[in-house]
Amino acid sequence: MATLLNRRDRWLNLTGIAGLIVVSIGLYMAFAYAPTDRVQGHAQRIFYVHVPMAWLAYLAYGVLFVGAVGYLWKKDMKWDRLARSSAELGFLFTTLVLITGALWGRPIWGTWWQWEARLTTTLVLWFIYLGYFMLRSYAGDRERAARHSAVLGLIGAIDIPIIHQSVEWWRTLHPEPVVLNTGGPNLPDSMLYTVLVTFVGFTILYAYLVGMKYRVEAARDEITEREMTRMFTTSSETASPSTSPQRISPASGGMED
Amino acid sequence: MNRIGALIWKDVLIEARSRQFIGAMLAFTLIVIVTLNFAFDLIREQRETNGAGALWIAILFAGLIGIGRSIAVERDRGTLDGLILSPIEGGSLFLGKFGAALLSIIVVEAIALPVFAALYDLPALDPLVIGIVLAGSIGLAALGTLFSAVTSGIRSREVLLPLLLFPLLIPILIAAVRATANVFEGDRDGTLRWINLMLGFDAIFIVLSYLGFGFLIED
After folding, report:
1. From B115's CA, which of A5, A196, B1, B198 has a CA 20 to 30 Å away?
2. Domain boundaries, chain A
3. Whether A145 contacts chain B with CB within 8 A
4. Across the interface, do A163 and B204 touch by the CB < 8 Å criterion?
């Protein structure tokens, strides 16, 4: 058991180190290797962080969706742990993509914000993440929090493309995708390589952070479970009639799952 | 089908005897319609677009206070256990509560729309507008019923419900407001894609809620 945990830890640490190295290389390339944009100037360099953040905001939701479906199907807490770990990082990356986008938009568009399809969808995504956390914190016992938030995660995942479509019909102004479009990438090679490196780097970093967060959540679940068991056993041993009802009632919540 | 009908009939009877929901929803909708006039000046220029927005804000709020509580009251009355123990599976339970919710909001709209049309001199009783209102209300009732179950056991549900519901209802709100504004402005062809969007939304979320409802009420 101990060696198994150690091996998993070692892999996780290696992932973290790899992510850190690739991100560092990517950031170095963003400032030293990639050319300065003729029209946008240095402000364009935020693109190398902004694009990976946008990708991770949605990737994290995809992982949350997988965790939600897995939990509803298998009723195993480990799927919920995956979902809630990814949700927290997704919320972080969604916040960052909104902030980096606003920082870029101010000099280039002349405004912090535009009510355009991709921006609006990402803002709505941010609110869905926010609702997800609030639901979890209000829901009370772990099992119900897992079940209800899984349904919310599922509904949100189906809704996000529809939200995007509706907002797109509503109005549009975002620069067209320059990396993923049908005619092949539409930017200089040096810029493309740089964004690919930051893209890979931040994705590895995300994998590491999800792994770490998952470990923290697993430990937290175990603490709760141990506390429940201890409370249950001590209260039944001492059998003091005045205190036992309050002590048993939280424990019964933990015994259900 | 009989079971779903019985569930709807049960809610209709309770409403007919207690009148606790529709009266409150209606009064609230009317005061919102009147109050929004002071915010947007709905009788001057651009009243077509602003009017469509005001109408849908009123419908959205009516749904929130009416449909949003439809599962919570079952829990408060202690009848939710009865429903769970009855030989009706989660999906049919959803359809029953959804049908009753939709019915209640339609009753409110049947009174609010003529009032709206009279106050602001906009063609809110146009058959196309009525169709749009129905299509939008179905989506509102479906997700409203689903999240009513999510928030029913939570003490601060009044805060949580709009936070969960509003982001997910954005497609309905955009489509309904645009389509209604199109009719008010006389552009009837422009409404088609918005109505399609709403119907697609309605179909998807009725099916999903049907499948997911059982997970939400099993405790």
Report:
1. B198
2. 16-35+44-175+187-225
3. no
4. no
CA dihedral defined by B200, B62, B57, B108, rounded to 10 degrees?
A: 80
Side chain identity at residue A251, one-letter code: A
**3-state class of A176 per DSSP?**
coil
Chain B residues bordering chain A (beta-carbon distance below 8 Å):
143, 146, 150-151, 153-156, 160, 163-164, 166-168, 170-171, 174-175, 178, 193-194, 197, 200-201, 204-205, 208, 212, 215-216, 218-219
A138 touches chain B (CB under 8 A): yes
Phi then psi for A134, rounded to 5 degrees?
-65, -40
ipTM for this model: 0.89
Does the pTM exceed 0.90?
A: no
Return the amino acid letter for B53.
G
Nearest to A118 by CA among A53, A50, A164, A160: A164
Query: Taking CA atoms, what residue in B is nearest to A73?
Result: B215
The owner of tokens 């599922």 is A154
What pLDDT digit, counting tens, does each position of A137-150 carry? 888 788 889 999 99
